[in-house]
Amino acid sequence: MMGKELHDRKWRALTLVALGAMLITNQRAPAQVKSGNFMSYDFYIGTGATLLEITLSGAVSVYFERVLKGTTTPHTVWDRNIQLAVMSGITFVPISLAETRGKWIFANLGWVSMSVAFLGALGGILVALCVRYTDAVMKCLATCASIVLTTVLGAVWLGAPVDFVIGVGSTIVIVSIL
């Protein structure tokens, strides 16, 4: 889509990132799936949906990079974010008003929910700037680094389990980023 080829180094990094992410997420599989008891296909449906989401996210990242860096587009990152915000508002404000039955949309949100929403919006702006000044591959690597950071912080602050396979997956992701 961008009219450029990826060097072997970037293909190796993307392959290693995918391998590392699969190792990290494989540890979250339910015990019946790991033991070979296939009574429920929920894990496989979830894995398939995740792979579809990752594929679509990559395609959208490349398309967004093309839109931002296209020579015929005089718009900045901020112009594109305002366009996205307006279209999101047109789409989701009526839905929110229907669900809240005309009440103030943010009436039931506490300060933690508002903070998380603000951080999500800030993350969107950072992703847009990342794509604008680097490329979609670097955005992918940054996203995988955030997965590793989330895993580490979850283990430190929340006592989430970390075993050898998660450690190997995290190491692979870090090496591929470097």
TrEMBL record:
Q: Which GO terms describe its molecular function?
A: pyrimidine nucleotide-sugar transmembrane transporter activity
InterPro entries documented for this protein: EmrE-like, Nuc_sug_transpt
What does the UniProt keyword field contain? Membrane, Transmembrane, Transmembrane helix
One Gene Ontology term, aspect cellular component: Golgi membrane
Supply the name of the protein. Answer: EamA domain-containing protein
Principal subcellular localisation of the protein: membrane
> According to its record, how does it sit in the membrane?
Multi-pass membrane protein
Ranges that cross the membrane: 41-65, 77-97, 109-131
Compartments where found = Membrane
